[in-house]
Design goal:
Elements lengths: L2 H21 L5 E3 L6 E3 H14 L7 E4 L11 E9 L1 H6 L5 E8 L2 E9 L4 E6 L4 E3 L2 E2 L11 E4 L9 H14 L2 E3 L4 H9 L5 E7 L1 H13 L3 E3 L12 E6 L1 H15 L6
Parallel strand pairs: 3-4, 10-11, 10-12
Antiparallel strand pairs: 1-2, 4-5, 5-6, 6-7, 7-8, 8-9, 12-14, 13-14
Helix pairs in contact: 1-2, 4-7, 5-6
Bound molecules: D-MYO-inositol-1-phosphate and calcium ion (2 copies).
Length: 265
């Protein structure tokens, strides 16, 4: 595989996709299963554009994309795609959404590209070759826990996790610097890779939300995992925790305690 060439082609594809999304005048909105969960015609157009453009890059690779009907991780190469991460932000004009494209080979993420198309910020990494933002190397910060910025995803579509999320937020607010919630998990995770925030926790995320960012994070010196068991399988929806240094240790401990029912606000 010529990883440089594949990376370059994925990067230009997501940039073109971002331009197309921004040019869509009045995308149609449809409801999905779950609490306040939506998909727009822009999500669907983005997914078709990406599937078509990615297919020739790694012949035989499978697709595991959010708006497909079936989500099965096949043996070998799989493209894990979130055509718009931050759909609610996109619908409301909050200008914080991204396109997330990850490549997983036999359960290991090897390449990740995340494009925040409003701010024109392109995050990318290939396993073993470092993490970059718009061509410049990026590194996670190492902030003491009591000053750390903790990003919390609220698992909005799954009400089962709302109380646990509130408990995690309460604990983080009392022990750390402050909380953040952007509305795009991929943007949150890449912010840690760029040293803008220190840790992330969300009680449930799907593989397309974190696959691309997982490579970017690890190449930037941060960690990402699930919680009890502490391993990501890129197949199921699971808790996701990420971060660096003390802040990562804090979210690991807190998420494990709260999600196993032992922690409280
Ligand atoms: C959502 C966003 C949000 C997170 C949700 C995700 P979507 O993705 O990443 O930040 O809290 O859990 O599902 O639906 O906008 O692609
Ligand atoms: Ca998503
Ligand atoms: Ca999405």
């Amino acid at each position: 595989m010529d990883w440089n060439e594949i990376l370059e082609r994925v990067c230009s594809l997501v940039k073109e996709d971002g331009r197309r999304i921004l040019a869509m005048k009045r995308p149609e909105v449809f409801e999905k299963e779950g609490h306040a969960n939506f998909v727009t015609s822009a999500d669907l157009a983005s997914q078709s554009f990406l599937l078509e453009g990615l297919a020739p890059l790694v012949p035989g690779a499978h697709f595991f994309a959010e708006e497909q009907e079936e989500h099965v991780l096949a043996p070998g190469y799989n493209w894990l795609i979130d055509p718009i991460d931050g759909t609610t932000n996109f619908m409301r004009g909050l200008r914080c959404s991204s396109i997330s494209v990850g490549l997983v080979n036999n359960g290991k993420a090897v390449l990740g590209v995340v494009y925040q198309f409003y701010s024109d910020e392109l995050f990318y990494a290939v396993r073993g070759k470092g993490a970059f933002l718009n061509g410049k190397p990026i590194h996670a910060a190492d902030t003491p826990c009591d000053r750390a910025l903790i990003e919390v995803g609220t698992s909005p579509y799954n009400t089962t996790f709302h109380a646990a999320t509130a408990a995690i937020m309460h604990k983080a607010l009392s022990c750390c610097g402050d909380l953040r919630r952007s509305g795009s998990a991929a943007v949150d995770l890449c912010a840690i890779a760029a040293g803008r925030a220190d840790a992330f926790v969300e009680a449930r995320l799907s593989p397309w939300d974190y696959a691309a960012s997982s490579v970017i994070l690890e190449e930037a010196g941060a960690q990402i995992t699930s919680c009890a068991p502490f391993t990501l399988d890129f197949q199921n929806s699971t808790p996701v925790i990420a971060g660096a240094g003390e802040a990562f240790d804090f979210v690991c401990r807190t998420a494990a305690a709260v999600l196993s029912g032992e922690g409280g606000a």
